[in-house]
Sequence to fold (297 residues):
Amino acid sequence: MSMSSEVVGAVAALAAVLALAGLAIYLRAPAAVSAADLLMDTAARRTGSDRRALLERSPIGTALDADLRRAGMSMRSSTLLLVMLALLVFGGLALNWVVGIAAGALPYFFVRRRAGRHAKEFAQQLPAVLDLIASALRAGQSETQAFALVAEQTKGAAGEEFRRMHQALGLGATSESVTQALLERLPGPDLELVVDAIQLAHKVGGNLAEMLGGIATTIRDRSRLEGEVRALTAQGRASTYLVTALAPIGLLLISLINPAWGQTLFETTAGRIVLGVAATLELIGFFTARAAAAVEV
Fold:
């Protein structure tokens, strides 16, 4: 009986490892850009008669779809939901429900992390991209040619996004639609300023190259100022985390030195009330101190 239980456990563990490995490989695969995705770049525009479309049109499906697009992944939000549900059920039945919940949330956190890294990389590349577009426009090239130049000469997140935009333009989309779709995938104040400048130039005219060059200079100046502010406020941020950690560390040391004192807090009603009030005050103090140390640029 014990041997069969060990075999079942080993098979379940191997299946879980293979499933997670396959999921990681699938999630890391580059996005396959289709014509429908290029011309209709939001989940709200998708139509479908299958049951999966119901999941994709739900608020959760719409949010996951936005994260998947920011991460540059081709997986549908309904597929991600089904994978999360499968891992949740498998982990809960094979081991326990705590492990199941953690396994089910793992793909979501992976997608969010990849989306955040993609957006951060694009924001860092944006000033150089704007300078390249401005130089191309000053040389007499069109916006489409400038976007193609960026897609060809830029790597990383910016290269991926501009390749998608260039392909969409080749399928008949307009500059306004592809830049607006880019802003929907990667929302941010800097990119919003760029999109507004492009749309304004199309409507009322103007020197778009000069506008984009000025925006690039503004972004660089603000990034430098943000770095200086973060350096000046680093001590305040570190103090916030240090002071917040003193109470839990002190409670742990007291429990190790004299376990009876810790048992009084955890095993009596009055002790649990004290711990709850202390934890609440700790959180309030932490968020208040962090807000005080944050400086908007």
